[in-house]
Write a structure and sequence with these properties.
Two copies of one chain form a homodimer.
Chain A: H1 4-11, H2 15-23, H3 30-43, H4 49-56, E1 61-66, H5 72-85, E2 91-96, H6 101-113, E3 118-121, H7 130-136, E4 141-144, E5 154-158, H8 160-174, E6 179-183, H9 189-204, E7 214-216, H10 221-233, E8 240-243, H11 246-258, E9 268-272, E10 285-288, H12 291-307, E11 316-319, E12 322-324
Parallel strand pairs in A: 1-2, 1-3, 3-4, 4-5, 5-11, 6-7, 6-8, 8-9, 9-10
Antiparallel strand pairs in A: 10-12
Helix pairs in contact in A: 1-2, 1-3, 5-12, 8-9, 10-11
The first copy, chain A, binds a DNA duplex (16 and 16 nucleotides) through helix 2 and helix 4.
Chain lengths: 351, 351
DNA sequence: CTGTTAGCGCGTTCAG
DNA sequence: CTGAACGCGCTAACAG
């Protein structure tokens, strides 16, 4: 395994000249360049990234720490991050915490030890200590998707409150008055914000949210299924469900199907999170988040901060959500002519 | 960001004592250990992995370079690798070449520059030059899944020839005499070996393989679909198909379905590669490869080699395949009582 | 345009 | 049981 030194000796120049030729930095004479390149080819020299990183004190690596790597929302964010980072010469490490604070902290420690240049974090909790640990070690962070109490950090997220307002408003406009909500943990900001937006729309429509079923659970299919069971077992019978994310929606749809409920004939459903084209059920009315943009902007913020000479003020970007009306939402109680269930009639075909 | 030196100063010892405490190497007095640990806690010291790796000339990292990261066969191998590597303190980098020789070479170069300790390679081709490049830089390699001409390297694979023999033999025993074969590229050893095993079984049964349809394509769903189309357009009408891998089988099943063929009533199908439990169609008769074992053994071979004092002889491990009879294979032309299509009646339900 | 000096943070070596 | 010296391979900073 040859080194810079070997190349320098063979080319009859100093190591610095070789370094300059390799990195294209500083001035080098064409002759030196030629001699160096010849020596490199002859030796099959490949630079040692480790040494380079140690010396330059930069690894040109970002980390994206997320809570659920199986969720298309996060994989889309990941694509946005990668697409923004790669052209600027940054590699990306992907880490999955499964919503566990401990796993998150473990990963953060590993990332510090590996000296990544910056961390993009979807925090599992508001108080994991991850951000403090990162700051203590001088690593910049960008918080994605979720809102934290302490605003002293860069952040990029979608407008959960506004999106939820759109969802509830859409259902209200269709004539629904009993709208159940199924969301993730109360402690996660997206849950709280989505309930807030929902509440605002209900109050505006003159409906007391206190009379509605608002269930907190997990952002998983199992939890969506379970909450739907509780919903159907209860006294009140909502004519619509607002599902806090796509997995909850899957569980809810499963539960409704088992209970013999047709969507949207018996019950409407609106989902926070759009799904990529080609999925099984592109018939859901959704609040689409700009997931790709969230990832892209977060990576760009980070890279900008890394390149800045002086410390930048923390910035927060909140992106709007969009209502995409499909076939899972309709006016309530229109059971007259029962057409083929919409579940089997997607309006948009997979790509 | 504190360093060993900072800890040493605070603890009033030398850097070496700190190093010894951290790595548990050499002797240290209990008092020193306590002082050092206190200093580490106080400073929140985290070792610099880069420096450690540079100095020790080991990254404790393996790479697994594979041709299709979306194929469950390879993800299962990946799990085997990870499960064997992690407990021994090795991290694993996963790289996807998409069967491209260029991508493979690009990755190999990156891996050399990152100084991974060893590379587990599913070669995209017999002559990419990857192995030569690795050897030139002193990186050990283990070749997975595919056979290469040059045997001068560790290798772990399943017995494709024997497995294919089992598959053909199974169909012959059922009474089939026209058995089409759909496999990947002729240049990939698994394709060639699977055709070999098939040929051996046919010859043994007194059938000239030259009279059969043997189609080479890609190990993809699209290619399986396309080859099936050619199959059905031809004169001869096979009563059974031997599919070279799971993706080819998917494409074939799609093509057969569109042509109105029932499996196994109109045509039987046997597939090389088992699928994980829970997949859409656990009704396929398959030749199961020990994918997890391939990954696990490859990682263990590599780690053993890395730990060896003297150079080891190259070793090759060939693992047997297993025939798992399910519902996609049956005797030919038994169209009498046409039951519910087997495709809708899997005998094994998803887990 | 080029070379010299001096480390990045750590672990190996050997002398105490 | 501990420490000093040295170097892994590379580049920043300066001097020429």
């Amino acid at each position: 395994m040859s080194t810079l030194n070997d190349v320098a000796k063979l080319a009859g120049v100093s190591t610095m000249t070789v370094s300059r030729v390799i990195n294209g930095s500083g001035y080098t004479s064409p002759e030196s360049r030629a001699r160096v390149n010849r020596a490199i080819a002859e030796l099959g020299y490949m630079p040692n990234v480790l040494a380079r990183q140690l010396r330059s004190r930069r690894t040109k690596t970002l980390a994206l720490v997320m809570t659920d790597i199986a969720n298309p929302f996060f994989t889309t964010i990941a694509r946005g991050v990668e697409d923004a980072a790669r052209p600027k010469g940054y590699a990306v490490m992907f880490c999955n915490t499964d919503e566990s604070v401990d796993e998150e902290l473990d990963y953060v420690r590993v990332l510090i030890q590996r000296r990544v240049d910056g961390v993009l974090l979807v925090p599992a909790s508001d108080s994991s200590g991850s951000l403090e640990l990162l700051k203590a070690h001088g690593l910049p962070a960008v918080v994605l998707d979720r809102r934290l109490r302490s605003g002293e950090v860069d952040a990029v997220r979608a407008d959960s409150e506004g999106g939820a307002y759109l969802a509830a408003r859409h259902l209200l406009d269709l004539g629904h008055r009993e709208i159940a909500v199924l969301v993730g943990p109360e402690s996660v900001s997206t849950s709280a914000d989505r309930v807030s937006g929902y509440r605002r729309a209900m109050l505006e429509a003159g409906i007391d949210p206190g009379t509605q079923q608002i269930l907190f659970g997990q952002y998983t299919e199992a939890s969506g299924y379970e909450m739907t069971g509780r919903l159907l077992a209860a006294q009140s019978r909502p004519t619509a469900i607002f599902a806090g994310n796509n997995f909850i929606a899957f569980g809810a749809i499963q539960g409704l199907r088992e209970a013999g409920k047709e969507i949207p004939d018996d019950i409407s459903i609106v989902v926070f999170d759009d799904l990529p084209q080609g999925w099984v059920m592109p018939f859901l009315t959704v609040i689409a988040q700009p997931a790709y943009e969230i990832g892209r902007l977060a990576a760009e913020m980070m890279i900008e901060r890394l390149g800045a000479d002086q410390p930048l003020e923390p910035r927060t970007i909140v992106l709007p959500c969009e209502l995409i009306t499909r076939r899972s939402s309709a006016p309530p109680r229109l059971r007259s002519a029962k057409p083929t269930p919409a579940t089997l009639n997607p309006t948009e075909s997979p790509a």
